[in-house]
Design goal:
By secondary structure, the chain is α/β, with parallel strands linked by helices. The chain has a single domain, classed as Formyl transferase, N-terminal domain (Rossmann fold), CATH 3.40.50. 34% of the residues lie in helices and 23% in strands. It contains six helices and seven strands; from the N terminus they run E-H-E-H-E-H-E-H-E-H-E-E-H. The protein has a seven-stranded mixed β-sheet with strand order 3-2-1-4-5-6-7, with helices on one face.
Length: 192
């Protein structure tokens, strides 16, 4: 996927379910001249996602999609993404699994940030699992989304040392700091 000619930024949708710290970070980077993307749409599976406040703060359109009726909602989202001319989807703490059909329609254009050094610890509770296993390192991975959970091609990874004092909260904080560095960098890497 290449950037268009000139300085037009690639229209991006960010999917969230929670606090939206990665969303806020991506918005911040998208405003910098040398970052080739703009955040044009925020999609959440819940109206309780705290990150939705950034839609108001940064005047970005938001959509809340109930994920209980997956197929129907996929069609709704796809139509909406097309209307907004979205070319890239960034999952940022999005706690729902996209359907295979949806992923196929946007193949190679959906990326996710995951709080572990994939292929280790796919799925949830990654920090607890890393600590319990006595790992020396934890980290985060930006990867392409495929129909297999957390299994797509890796774009970027960042590793951090797990200290003896770390618990899931302290480790989560350290990893999140790295996520904020590598997510915009990964987008830049695939678009340039």
């Amino acid at each position: 996927m290449k950037k268009s000619i000139g300085h037009e930024k690639i229209k991006t949708a960010v999917f969230i379910s929670g606090k939206g710290s990665n969303l806020k970070n991506l918005i911040k980077f998208s405003k910098l001249k040398h970052y080739p993307f703009s955040v044009d749409l925020i999609i959440s599976n819940t109206n309780k996602a705290k990150g939705l406040k950034y839609s108001k703060e940064y005047k970005i359109e938001k959509k809340i999609i109930n994920y209980d009726k997956k197929i129907k909602n996929d069609k709704k989202i796809l139509k909406f993404l097309k209307k907004k001319k979205i070319k890239l989807i960034c999952l940022a703490g999005f706690m729902k699994i996209l359907s295979n059909n949806f992923i196929k329609k946007f193949e190679g254009k959906i990326i996710n940030i995951h709080p572990s050094l994939l292929p280790k610890y796919k799925g949830l509770n990654t920090h607890v699992r890393a600590i319990k296993s006595g790992d020396k390192f934890a980290g985060c991975t930006v990867h392409y989304v495929t129909s297999k959970l957390d299994s797509g091609k890796i774009i970027l990874q960042k590793k951090i040392k797990i200290s003896r004092k770390d618990n899931r909260y302290s480790l989560s904080k350290k990893v999140l700091k790295k996520e904020h560095l590598i997510y915009p960098a990964a987008i830049k890497k695939i678009l340039n």
